[in-house]
Amino acid sequence: MATFITKGTVIANPSDDNVSRAQFVRLVATAATSKITVSSEDSTVLGDVYLHAAGDEAIIEKAPSDKLNTSAGAVTVHAVGSPRS
Length: 85
Description:
Layout: E1 5-6, E2 11-12, E3 15-17, E4 24-29, E5 34-39, E6 45-51, E7 57-61, E8 67-70, E9 75-81
């Protein structure tokens, strides 16, 4: 289990959301096979992350202006920081 510092409220199913310009974001699947797309400020797709079961989680690093998109009912996200920050 990872240790992190929470830095914001939970956002359910972000759509073109930069998550309060966070650099580190924790993703938690709320459904099976959840896809999260990371895109730049100009909507260029930078990459996808898949969580394969409800409860799966990951912490990703992104640029503050990068946005997250998910399917409805699939993922919750929130800004986090490193315990060393």
